[in-house]
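Q: what does this look like with heme C bound?
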Amino acid sequence: MKLNFLFIFIVLFIIVIASCEPNMPSKGSSSVDTKETAKTANELYTTHCVTCHGADGAMGMSGAKNLQDSKLENSEIIKQITHGKGMMSGFEGKMTAEEIEKVATYIVTLRK
Ligand code: HEC
């Protein structure tokens, strides 16, 4: 009886591990524009922006501006993300132009 339970547990464990596998980001790839590393706007924001701007855009770490109060237009946002400003370094080379556009669209949704 005990062995049976252990067996089921192990099988479940393997299924859980196996179902996670396809979602793992491929490591060891330095190129940011391959399909495998395509990330959602939210993931991009979490990866690159949360440390200073916080999940809700209002954290303001190292003098970061409150994205909820930002009035910048889309083109200005893209310019700022690409080239940076002040304490915020640019993300050119770290994200593709497409990804930068995605994040730019995303941060506008944080506005109140
Ligand atoms: C190292 C910390 C840091 C990171 C990481 C960072 N920012 Fe910033 N961000 C700042 C600072 C500081 C400012 C204010 C710059 C200034 O005006 O001098 C700022 C300003 C901005 C502004 C302008 C807001 C306005 O109304 O002027 C936008 C838009 C912005 N950040 C978006 C982003 C996005 C999107 C990311 C991620 C791709 C990001 N930031 C990552 C620190 C950061």
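The mean pLDDT is 84. Helices lie at 2-20, 41-48, 50-53, 74-83, 97-108.
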